[in-house]
Amino acid sequence: MTSTLTATQTCLSLEDVSIRYWNTEAVRGVHLAVPRHKVTAFIGPSGCGKSTVLRSLNRMNDLIEGCTLSGRVVFDGQDLYAKTVDPVEVRRRIGMVFQKPNPFPKTIYDNIAFGARINGYTGDMDELVERSLRKAALWDETKDKLSESGYALSGGQQQRLCIARTIAIDPEVILMDEPCSALDPISTLKIEEMIHELKNSYTIVIVTHNMQQAVRVSDMTGFFNVNTFSDRDAKVGCLEEFADTQTIFNSPQQKATQDYVSGRFG
Amino acid sequence: MVPMAAGARPELFTQRRRPLWELLIDRGFQKLVVLLASVVGLVLVGILFTVLGGSTEAIGRFGLGFLTTSNWDPIAEQYGAFTAIYGTVVSSLLALLIAVPLGVGTAIFLTENIIPLPIRQVLGVMVELLAAIPSVVLGLWAIFVMEPFLRPFLELLHTSLGWMPFFSTVPMGPGMAPAILILVVTVLPIITAISRDSLQQVPTELRQAAYGIGTTRWEAILQVILPAAVSGITGGVMLALGRAMGETMAVTMIIGNSNNFTLSLLAPGNTIASMLANQFGEADGFQVSALMYAALVLMLLTLVVNVLAQWIVRRLSLKYA
Amino acid sequence: MAFSSDAVVHHPASLCFRPSLPRNRWNALLTVVVAVFSSIAVLPLVLVLGYVLFKGGSLISAELLTELPPPPGLDGGGIGNAILGTTIVTLVASLIAIPVGVGGGVYLAEYSRSGWFAQFVRFGTNVLSGVPSIICGVFIYGLIVSTRFFFGQSYSAMAGGVALSVLMLPTVIKTTDEALKLVPRELRLGAMGLGASQFVTITRITLPTAFTPIATGVVLGIARAAGETAPLIFTALFSPFWPEGLFNPIATMSVLIFNFAIMPYEAQNALAWAASFVLVLMILLANLFARWVARFTRV
Question: What are the phi and psi torsion angles at A12 (to 5°)?
């Protein structure tokens, strides 16, 4: 499947990645190449490890006690899990948007300025705030209340604020962990439109429960499934199939993928 | 070589690579916080070593006999802490005997929807404020208000039940009995607060299940709700026991501070804490060591009780987890 | 059937409430019992507060708050030095216990994982909060007073402050730990996801979010420490004079109450009541303030 992608187009690649929590294997043997400036979606039934894999891409799993990774995650020619790599720097270049909107208990303005300041932003902060909010399609709704708390916004607006805050640090990759699962359909639509815009500037990896959403927003889709291996009783997540979104949904190679996308399980 | 995002000006983000000072602050802060956390351990070890070190002389001279003899004579340098140990144990146990029914009963009254919520809240706040009153103020009140008020009743107790060794002396003012009552006041808020928390944590479903099969309020409380809350309440009672044994000021001011052993609750007595409070300031030489030995005994007593309290809470709470 | 025979209303299948049933009698009786218990439980508060407010409050005057206590046997005077002393000693204790305690709490809530050290710190905090306050006094006596740790001085305001700080420490640690645990994990992840270091996440996001509950708990801890006597009687000792710096014995309200309550002089007894009034008022105000603030914080 990687034959269509040359190395320069690959942004992040996973090489034989397995992730375990203490002694429980969560994900095994993932090979994957995330193309640059494309939207890559991870789909699959619950417990298949798609969110775990997503969090491993900017080392958010480091914050979970007992979580270890084997294999290589290569970004910009470097193994993210090499001893010398600083996870904080990784997260400055690979930003993340979470399932539940999580604005800081600060003003809307400071929510955006916070990350930029951390990243040592030296430009015009007002201009950056405006540009980020515009990109997140939130400027018109918030331009008159920048000094109000981020909590004053609706759920959908909060999630767009969180995206704006990630855009403001200008990462190379944006990871989105089911960003619409807590939102109503209209907010979901707005965010999906935004993802279309953002893909010109960023590489996006999105985990979604919603197959229609994967079809609507993504270029590439990875289908994760839960398998039982002969050497273990427990169920382990693994990447079943990874290809163009069209291929996954119209002519998948694997039977499990076919069953899943046609709604036969999951 | 890396194509940057459109419209972005990465050169403006000067700290994309973490500068060294930022790294050092981050690491330094972590080390600092670990250091501050270890102060707790240092203090505990410090307390143990200070008290143990200070008492070695007395331990060497009296050994375990210190615990079973009761003469306290600074001139002859003969020391035995039995009266104080007995006083500590007896006063706190008797205080609990009174405070547990009062405290648990109050907690039930405050949680089980017997009276309207606003009144319950006011009562709850009042019990909590009682815990905030300094024990030295309780002692002052005990000296000038409670004890004079109590004396006729204690005299009555003596005249009617004087044949029992516990009431065999004429009440003359300060003594064990008023000290026990003031101890009740100091531990009541703890028992009430912890029992109340435990009762509130009993799941609503459990209450509904009980009422749903037609129990009266008290059948539900006694047979379903209290058993479910028993771990927290027991833990609270143990904590209160620890507090009662260590309680110093109020007891010191009203117990009479006598080292003569007597079974009578109407006579002056002593606890380890009150003995320390009374004598430490003026003691020197060997007496300090004897007092340190007594402090060591008090520390071990409260330590055992507190560790037991934590263990009980953890052990019993598994049943209803 | 066994129940009451005024069968005018009651036939066997009646759903009417019958107070005469044993279970209903028990119900009523037990309810009365706990009601009485609750009244007994709040009685001491009412009585103590009443006496302190009336007996102490009636003595309050400008001279009382600003003058030195009189020599034994003489009338008049005040508790000015004790008020100042309590402020100084409590301030010293806070300056030590708050940074150390908040740091310890931050460690427990933000850094600790399930290793032995974290368990040890947690256990140690619980043990320390159960150590009798008089033992804190004995500890500081042995560590600072008897060794003449501070410039050859034995009893000192500093020693008293350190003793109180030992007492405050577990309270501050627990308060901080619990308040930080109320901060949603998503906020931390959000900051980390933007590339914030743990230091920045804690100092800019988590600690500010948890500020009010921490501050409330700390205020209550300070109020409690201000009323503590046992750790002070042989560390800070007492002084009939104005405070002479941090390294000399110092008067505090709590020790003044203790010393003057057991003196056979009425003037001194009266000053003990007055000091109780000031102390209780301070503590009650701090408590009410903390409750009032807490109403505005639902994280």
Answer: -130, 135
Between β-strands A173-177 and A203-207, what pairing exists: parallel, antiparallel or unpaired? parallel
Does the residue A30 lie in any domain? yes
CATH number, position A180: 3.40.50.300
| Per-residue CA distances from C189 to A119, C128, C184, C206 (Å) | 16, 33, 9, 11
Q: pLDDT at position B264, please?
A: 85
* H runs (alpha helix) in chain C: 22-51, 57, 62-66, 80-106, 116-130, 133-140, 157-182, 185-193, 198-200, 207-209, 211-227, 253-261, 266-294
CB proximity list for B281: less than 8 A, separation 6 or greater: C233, C234, C237
Q: Name the architecture of domain C64-294.
A: Orthogonal Bundle (1.10)
Asked if the model's pLDDT at residue C252 lies above 60, the reply is: yes
Q: Residue B105 falls within a domain, yes or no?
A: yes
ipTM of this predicted complex? Answer: 0.88
What is the nearest CA distance from A40 to chain B, expressed in angstroms? 17
Range of the domain at A245: 2-101+172-261
Nearest-angstrom CA–CA distance, B245 and B85: 10
What angle (nearest 5°) sits at the alpha carbon of residue C255, between those of residues C251 and C261?
120
Split into its structural domains, chain B has a count of: 1
Chain B contact for A197, CB < 8 A? no
Tell if the CB–CB gap between A58 and C193 is shorter than 8 Å.
yes
Q: Is residue A111 part of a domain?
A: no
Range 99-128 of A in CB contact (< 8 A) with B:
116, 118-123
Q: What is the distance between the alpha carbons of residues A96 and C227, in angstroms, rounded to a whole number?
A: 50
Q: How far is CA C98 from CA B31, C90, C286, in A?
A: 18, 11, 17
* Residue among B244, B270, B265, B254 nearest B70 (CA): B270
Q: Which residues, 6+ apart, have CB-to-CB distance to B211 below 8 Å?
A: B220
Q: Which residues of A touch C200 (CB under 8 A)?
A: 118
C-alpha span between C221 and B143 (Å, rounded): 27
CATH number at residue B87: 1.10.3720.10
Asked whether residue A136 is domain-assigned, the answer is no
CA distance A227 to chain C (A): 30
Question: Would you tell me which residues 171-190 of chain C have a C-beta closer than 8 angstroms to some C-beta of chain B?
Answer: 173
Contact: A131, B16; criterion CB under 8 Å: no
- Extract the tokens encoding B108: 């039930």
Q: pTM of the prediction?
A: 0.87
In chain C, which residues have their Cβ closer than 8 Å to the Cβ of A114? 191, 194, 196, 204
Number of domains within chain A? 1
Question: What residues does each domain of chain C span?
Answer: 64-294
First to last CA, chain C: 59
pLDDT digits (tens, 9 = 90+) for A125-183: 999 999 999 988 899 999 999 999 999 999 889 999 999 999 998 899 999 999 998 88
User: Chain B residue with minimal CA distance to A203?
Assistant: B5
Is A12 a member of any domain?
A: yes
Residues from C contacting A (CB-CB < 8 Å) are 113-114, 184, 186-197, 200, 204-205, 208-209
